Amino acid sequence: MRSWLSSMLSKPATWLLHIALGIIVLGACVTHFFGEHGEIHLRADQAQTLTVRHSSVSLFLWDFHIVSDADGNPVDFISELRLLDRRAKTPVVDEGIVRMNKPLKYHGFRFCQSDYDSDLQGVVLAYNYDPWGIVITYAGYALLLVAMIAFFTQKNTGFRAVLKKSVLYQRRGLYAISAGVLIVLLAVVMTRAVTPKPPLQPVLQTPLLGIHVSVIMLAYTLFAVIMINGILGLCMPKRREQILYVSHVLLYPGLFSLTAGIFIGAVWANMSWGRYWGWDPKETWALITMLVYAALLHLPWLKNKCALSKDRFAIVYHVCSVVAFAFVLFTYFGVSYLLGGLHSYAN
Length: 347
Hints:
Layout lengths: L1 H9 L1 H23 L1 E8 L3 E6 L2 E14 L5 E12 L7 E7 L4 E3 L2 E8 L5 E8 L3 H19 L6 H8 L1 H4 L1 H23 L12 H29 L4 H33 L8 H17 L2 H7 L3 H30 L8
Antiparallel strand pairs: 1-8, 2-3, 3-4, 4-5, 6-7, 7-8
Helix pairs in contact: 2-3, 3-8, 4-8, 6-7, 7-8, 7-11, 8-9, 9-11
Protein backbone atom coordinates (compact mmCIF):
# COMPACT_ATOMS: atom_id res chain seq x y z
CA MET A 1 0.00 0.00 0.00
CA ARG A 2 2.81 2.41 0.88
CA SER A 3 4.72 1.62 -2.31
CA TRP A 4 1.59 2.18 -4.39
CA LEU A 5 0.90 5.50 -2.66
CA SER A 6 4.50 6.68 -2.96
CA SER A 7 4.51 5.78 -6.65
CA MET A 8 1.32 7.74 -7.16
CA LEU A 9 2.72 10.79 -5.38
CA SER A 10 6.04 10.66 -7.24
CA LYS A 11 4.42 10.27 -10.69
CA PRO A 12 1.10 12.18 -10.50
CA ALA A 13 0.83 12.91 -14.24
CA THR A 14 1.40 9.25 -15.15
CA TRP A 15 -1.32 8.15 -12.77
CA LEU A 16 -3.65 10.89 -13.97
CA LEU A 17 -3.27 9.59 -17.54
CA HIS A 18 -4.51 6.17 -16.55
CA ILE A 19 -7.23 7.54 -14.26
CA ALA A 20 -8.49 9.77 -17.09
CA LEU A 21 -8.68 6.80 -19.46
CA GLY A 22 -10.60 4.89 -16.80
CA ILE A 23 -13.08 7.78 -16.45
CA ILE A 24 -13.55 7.86 -20.23
CA VAL A 25 -14.29 4.12 -20.26
CA LEU A 26 -16.71 4.60 -17.35
CA GLY A 27 -18.50 7.37 -19.27
CA ALA A 28 -18.72 5.12 -22.34
CA CYS A 29 -20.27 2.36 -20.20
CA VAL A 30 -22.83 4.78 -18.75
CA THR A 31 -23.71 5.94 -22.27
CA HIS A 32 -24.01 2.36 -23.52
CA PHE A 33 -26.20 1.05 -20.72
CA PHE A 34 -28.23 4.11 -19.77
CA GLY A 35 -28.14 6.47 -22.76
CA GLU A 36 -30.68 6.50 -25.58
CA HIS A 37 -30.18 7.64 -29.14
CA GLY A 38 -31.98 7.41 -32.45
CA GLU A 39 -33.63 9.51 -35.12
CA ILE A 40 -36.98 11.26 -35.40
CA HIS A 41 -38.66 12.43 -38.62
CA LEU A 42 -40.51 15.74 -38.42
CA ARG A 43 -42.89 17.19 -41.00
CA ALA A 44 -44.01 20.79 -41.08
CA ASP A 45 -47.68 19.83 -40.78
CA GLN A 46 -47.52 17.53 -37.75
CA ALA A 47 -46.10 17.31 -34.22
CA GLN A 48 -44.14 14.35 -32.89
CA THR A 49 -43.78 13.27 -29.28
CA LEU A 50 -40.51 11.68 -28.19
CA THR A 51 -40.51 9.71 -24.94
CA VAL A 52 -37.30 8.35 -23.42
CA ARG A 53 -37.30 6.87 -19.92
CA HIS A 54 -38.90 9.49 -17.67
CA SER A 55 -38.59 12.35 -20.16
CA SER A 56 -41.05 13.30 -22.83
CA VAL A 57 -40.96 16.19 -25.29
CA SER A 58 -43.17 17.20 -28.21
CA LEU A 59 -41.54 18.69 -31.29
CA PHE A 60 -43.03 20.70 -34.13
CA LEU A 61 -41.06 21.76 -37.18
CA TRP A 62 -41.71 25.46 -37.63
CA ASP A 63 -39.31 26.06 -40.50
CA PHE A 64 -36.41 24.47 -42.36
CA HIS A 65 -34.09 26.19 -44.78
CA ILE A 66 -30.68 25.74 -46.37
CA VAL A 67 -28.05 28.46 -46.17
CA SER A 68 -25.87 28.64 -49.30
CA ASP A 69 -22.78 30.59 -50.28
CA ALA A 70 -22.45 32.91 -53.27
CA ASP A 71 -21.85 29.93 -55.57
CA GLY A 72 -24.95 28.11 -54.39
CA ASN A 73 -23.10 25.52 -52.30
CA PRO A 74 -24.88 24.60 -49.03
CA VAL A 75 -23.00 25.74 -45.94
CA ASP A 76 -25.61 25.10 -43.25
CA PHE A 77 -28.94 23.39 -42.58
CA ILE A 78 -31.23 25.16 -40.12
CA SER A 79 -34.30 23.65 -38.45
CA GLU A 80 -36.47 25.96 -36.33
CA LEU A 81 -38.48 24.01 -33.77
CA ARG A 82 -41.24 24.52 -31.27
CA LEU A 83 -40.84 22.28 -28.23
CA LEU A 84 -43.11 21.35 -25.36
CA ASP A 85 -41.79 19.65 -22.20
CA ARG A 86 -44.45 17.07 -21.29
CA ARG A 87 -43.13 16.74 -17.72
CA ALA A 88 -43.91 20.33 -16.77
CA LYS A 89 -47.06 20.93 -14.73
CA THR A 90 -47.78 24.10 -16.69
CA PRO A 91 -46.48 23.34 -20.20
CA VAL A 92 -44.83 26.21 -22.06
CA VAL A 93 -43.94 26.14 -25.74
CA ASP A 94 -40.23 26.84 -26.21
CA GLU A 95 -38.31 27.71 -29.36
CA GLY A 96 -35.11 26.06 -30.51
CA ILE A 97 -32.80 25.97 -33.51
CA VAL A 98 -30.80 23.00 -34.79
CA ARG A 99 -27.85 23.72 -37.08
CA MET A 100 -24.96 21.68 -38.45
CA ASN A 101 -22.32 21.27 -35.72
CA LYS A 102 -24.57 23.20 -33.31
CA PRO A 103 -26.92 20.75 -31.59
CA LEU A 104 -29.97 21.88 -29.66
CA LYS A 105 -29.96 20.98 -25.95
CA TYR A 106 -33.35 20.68 -24.27
CA HIS A 107 -34.06 19.11 -20.86
CA GLY A 108 -31.46 16.35 -21.21
CA PHE A 109 -32.06 15.82 -24.95
CA ARG A 110 -29.62 16.75 -27.70
CA PHE A 111 -30.94 17.18 -31.25
CA CYS A 112 -28.63 17.23 -34.30
CA GLN A 113 -29.33 17.82 -37.96
CA SER A 114 -29.20 14.49 -39.80
CA ASP A 115 -31.16 14.72 -43.06
CA TYR A 116 -34.00 16.57 -44.78
CA ASP A 117 -36.82 15.79 -47.21
CA SER A 118 -36.45 16.73 -50.85
CA ASP A 119 -39.43 19.11 -50.66
CA LEU A 120 -37.79 20.94 -47.72
CA GLN A 121 -40.95 20.39 -45.66
CA GLY A 122 -39.46 17.73 -43.39
CA VAL A 123 -36.25 16.92 -41.54
CA VAL A 124 -34.63 13.97 -39.80
CA LEU A 125 -33.06 14.83 -36.47
CA ALA A 126 -30.66 12.59 -34.56
CA TYR A 127 -31.50 12.66 -30.87
CA ASN A 128 -29.48 11.65 -27.85
CA TYR A 129 -30.62 11.38 -24.25
CA ASP A 130 -27.50 10.82 -22.17
CA PRO A 131 -27.35 13.41 -19.35
CA TRP A 132 -24.66 11.59 -17.33
CA GLY A 133 -22.54 9.62 -19.80
CA ILE A 134 -21.48 12.69 -21.79
CA VAL A 135 -20.62 14.64 -18.63
CA ILE A 136 -18.45 11.82 -17.30
CA THR A 137 -16.75 11.28 -20.66
CA TYR A 138 -16.02 14.96 -21.20
CA ALA A 139 -14.59 15.17 -17.67
CA GLY A 140 -12.27 12.31 -18.67
CA TYR A 141 -11.25 14.17 -21.84
CA ALA A 142 -10.41 17.32 -19.85
CA LEU A 143 -8.43 15.38 -17.25
CA LEU A 144 -6.57 13.49 -20.00
CA LEU A 145 -5.55 16.76 -21.69
CA VAL A 146 -4.24 18.15 -18.39
CA ALA A 147 -2.40 14.89 -17.66
CA MET A 148 -0.74 14.78 -21.10
CA ILE A 149 0.53 18.34 -20.74
CA ALA A 150 1.68 17.73 -17.15
CA PHE A 151 3.43 14.51 -18.18
CA PHE A 152 6.15 16.36 -20.06
CA THR A 153 6.88 18.54 -17.02
CA GLN A 154 7.13 15.57 -14.65
CA LYS A 155 10.75 14.77 -13.82
CA ASN A 156 10.87 11.00 -13.23
CA THR A 157 9.19 9.64 -16.34
CA GLY A 158 10.26 7.09 -18.90
CA PHE A 159 10.25 9.90 -21.45
CA ARG A 160 12.83 11.91 -19.50
CA ALA A 161 14.97 8.83 -18.92
CA VAL A 162 15.13 7.80 -22.56
CA LEU A 163 15.49 11.42 -23.73
CA LYS A 164 18.74 11.78 -21.77
CA LYS A 165 20.12 8.70 -23.51
CA SER A 166 19.21 9.83 -27.02
CA VAL A 167 21.22 11.88 -29.48
CA LEU A 168 18.38 14.42 -29.48
CA TYR A 169 19.36 15.34 -25.92
CA GLN A 170 23.12 14.91 -26.21
CA ARG A 171 23.27 17.18 -29.26
CA ARG A 172 19.99 18.96 -28.72
CA GLY A 173 21.03 22.22 -30.35
CA LEU A 174 21.40 20.73 -33.85
CA TYR A 175 19.47 17.48 -33.87
CA ALA A 176 16.42 18.55 -31.89
CA ILE A 177 15.83 21.72 -33.92
CA SER A 178 16.41 19.96 -37.25
CA ALA A 179 14.18 17.01 -36.33
CA GLY A 180 11.45 19.30 -34.99
CA VAL A 181 11.41 21.51 -38.08
CA LEU A 182 11.39 18.48 -40.41
CA ILE A 183 8.56 16.77 -38.56
CA VAL A 184 6.41 19.91 -38.46
CA LEU A 185 6.98 20.53 -42.19
CA LEU A 186 6.05 16.95 -43.03
CA ALA A 187 2.93 17.20 -40.86
CA VAL A 188 1.90 20.45 -42.60
CA VAL A 189 2.40 18.89 -46.05
CA MET A 190 0.41 15.80 -45.07
CA THR A 191 -2.36 17.93 -43.54
CA ARG A 192 -2.70 20.02 -46.70
CA ALA A 193 -2.70 16.89 -48.83
CA VAL A 194 -5.53 15.15 -46.94
CA THR A 195 -7.74 18.13 -46.01
CA PRO A 196 -10.83 18.19 -48.26
CA LYS A 197 -10.83 21.01 -50.80
CA PRO A 198 -13.67 23.57 -51.04
CA PRO A 199 -16.58 23.53 -51.44
CA LEU A 200 -16.87 21.64 -48.16
CA GLN A 201 -19.88 19.73 -46.94
CA PRO A 202 -21.70 21.60 -44.16
CA VAL A 203 -20.56 19.04 -41.57
CA LEU A 204 -16.93 19.90 -42.40
CA GLN A 205 -17.34 23.64 -42.00
CA THR A 206 -16.00 23.94 -38.48
CA PRO A 207 -12.63 24.97 -36.98
CA LEU A 208 -12.41 21.45 -35.53
CA LEU A 209 -11.68 20.10 -39.02
CA GLY A 210 -8.26 21.76 -39.19
CA ILE A 211 -7.41 20.96 -35.57
CA HIS A 212 -8.49 17.32 -35.83
CA VAL A 213 -6.67 16.65 -39.12
CA SER A 214 -3.49 18.51 -38.09
CA VAL A 215 -3.13 16.67 -34.78
CA ILE A 216 -3.76 13.27 -36.41
CA MET A 217 -1.30 14.01 -39.23
CA LEU A 218 1.36 15.07 -36.70
CA ALA A 219 0.94 11.68 -35.02
CA TYR A 220 1.14 9.81 -38.33
CA THR A 221 4.27 11.77 -39.30
CA LEU A 222 5.98 10.83 -36.03
CA PHE A 223 4.97 7.19 -36.52
CA ALA A 224 6.40 7.28 -40.05
CA VAL A 225 9.73 8.55 -38.68
CA ILE A 226 9.67 5.79 -36.05
CA MET A 227 9.02 3.22 -38.78
CA ILE A 228 11.96 4.53 -40.84
CA ASN A 229 14.10 4.41 -37.71
CA GLY A 230 13.00 0.81 -37.25
CA ILE A 231 14.27 -0.13 -40.71
CA LEU A 232 17.53 1.76 -40.11
CA GLY A 233 17.93 0.11 -36.71
CA LEU A 234 17.62 -3.35 -38.24
CA CYS A 235 20.15 -2.47 -40.95
CA MET A 236 22.69 -0.68 -38.71
CA PRO A 237 23.64 -2.98 -35.80
CA LYS A 238 26.22 -0.59 -34.34
CA ARG A 239 23.69 2.23 -33.96
CA ARG A 240 20.70 0.06 -33.22
CA GLU A 241 20.37 1.03 -29.57
CA GLN A 242 20.84 4.77 -30.16
CA ILE A 243 18.18 4.73 -32.89
CA LEU A 244 15.85 2.96 -30.45
CA TYR A 245 16.21 5.84 -27.98
CA VAL A 246 15.31 8.38 -30.66
CA SER A 247 12.25 6.34 -31.70
CA HIS A 248 11.06 5.96 -28.13
CA VAL A 249 11.40 9.70 -27.51
CA LEU A 250 9.25 10.42 -30.58
CA LEU A 251 6.72 7.77 -29.59
CA TYR A 252 5.45 9.78 -26.61
CA PRO A 253 4.32 12.89 -28.52
CA GLY A 254 3.14 10.66 -31.38
CA LEU A 255 0.87 8.58 -29.16
CA PHE A 256 -0.36 11.63 -27.25
CA SER A 257 -1.15 13.44 -30.52
CA LEU A 258 -3.10 10.47 -31.88
CA THR A 259 -5.03 10.17 -28.60
CA ALA A 260 -5.83 13.89 -28.60
CA GLY A 261 -6.86 13.72 -32.27
CA ILE A 262 -9.25 10.84 -31.60
CA PHE A 263 -10.93 12.64 -28.71
CA ILE A 264 -11.16 15.92 -30.66
CA GLY A 265 -12.91 13.89 -33.35
CA ALA A 266 -15.22 12.44 -30.70
CA VAL A 267 -16.23 15.93 -29.53
CA TRP A 268 -16.85 16.94 -33.14
CA ALA A 269 -18.92 13.80 -33.76
CA ASN A 270 -21.04 14.59 -30.71
CA MET A 271 -21.75 18.02 -32.18
CA SER A 272 -22.48 16.77 -35.70
CA TRP A 273 -24.02 13.32 -35.32
CA GLY A 274 -25.38 13.36 -31.78
CA ARG A 275 -22.96 10.80 -30.34
CA TYR A 276 -19.26 10.90 -29.65
CA TRP A 277 -18.60 7.29 -30.61
CA GLY A 278 -20.41 5.06 -33.08
CA TRP A 279 -17.87 2.34 -33.99
CA ASP A 280 -17.47 3.77 -37.47
CA PRO A 281 -14.63 1.89 -39.25
CA LYS A 282 -12.30 4.91 -39.19
CA GLU A 283 -12.97 5.50 -35.48
CA THR A 284 -12.50 1.84 -34.64
CA TRP A 285 -9.21 1.45 -36.50
CA ALA A 286 -7.86 4.72 -35.12
CA LEU A 287 -8.54 3.31 -31.65
CA ILE A 288 -6.84 0.02 -32.59
CA THR A 289 -3.82 1.97 -33.87
CA MET A 290 -3.68 3.93 -30.62
CA LEU A 291 -3.70 0.70 -28.60
CA VAL A 292 -0.96 -0.82 -30.81
CA TYR A 293 1.34 2.15 -30.21
CA ALA A 294 0.42 2.19 -26.51
CA ALA A 295 1.64 -1.43 -26.41
CA LEU A 296 4.86 -0.34 -28.16
CA LEU A 297 5.29 2.39 -25.55
CA HIS A 298 5.12 -0.21 -22.77
CA LEU A 299 7.44 -2.63 -24.59
CA PRO A 300 10.45 -1.88 -22.29
CA TRP A 301 8.49 -3.78 -19.64
CA LEU A 302 9.16 -6.90 -21.75
CA LYS A 303 12.90 -6.31 -21.56
CA ASN A 304 12.82 -6.31 -17.77
CA LYS A 305 10.50 -9.31 -17.45
CA CYS A 306 12.20 -11.48 -20.06
CA ALA A 307 15.79 -10.44 -19.27
CA LEU A 308 16.56 -9.62 -22.90
CA SER A 309 19.95 -8.27 -23.88
CA LYS A 310 20.07 -4.67 -25.12
CA ASP A 311 20.74 -5.71 -28.70
CA ARG A 312 18.01 -8.36 -28.78
CA PHE A 313 15.49 -5.99 -27.25
CA ALA A 314 16.42 -3.33 -29.81
CA ILE A 315 15.74 -5.81 -32.62
CA VAL A 316 12.34 -6.68 -31.14
CA TYR A 317 11.50 -2.99 -30.71
CA HIS A 318 12.43 -2.03 -34.27
CA VAL A 319 10.52 -4.96 -35.77
CA CYS A 320 7.44 -3.99 -33.75
CA SER A 321 7.75 -0.33 -34.82
CA VAL A 322 7.76 -1.36 -38.49
CA VAL A 323 4.80 -3.71 -38.04
CA ALA A 324 2.87 -1.07 -36.06
CA PHE A 325 3.01 1.35 -38.98
CA ALA A 326 0.99 -1.11 -41.04
CA PHE A 327 -1.94 -0.24 -38.76
CA VAL A 328 -1.47 3.44 -39.60
CA LEU A 329 -1.52 2.67 -43.32
CA PHE A 330 -4.64 0.55 -43.01
CA THR A 331 -6.39 3.10 -40.79
CA TYR A 332 -5.92 5.81 -43.36
CA PHE A 333 -5.86 4.08 -46.75
CA GLY A 334 -7.37 0.66 -46.11
CA VAL A 335 -10.41 1.87 -44.18
CA SER A 336 -11.09 4.73 -46.60
CA TYR A 337 -11.04 2.55 -49.71
CA LEU A 338 -12.23 -0.81 -48.38
CA LEU A 339 -14.60 -0.18 -45.49
CA GLY A 340 -16.03 3.29 -46.12
CA GLY A 341 -18.35 4.58 -43.39
CA LEU A 342 -19.21 8.06 -42.18
CA HIS A 343 -15.65 9.20 -42.95
CA SER A 344 -16.02 8.44 -46.64
CA TYR A 345 -15.63 12.16 -47.42
CA ALA A 346 -11.97 11.71 -46.34
CA ASN A 347 -11.26 9.57 -49.40
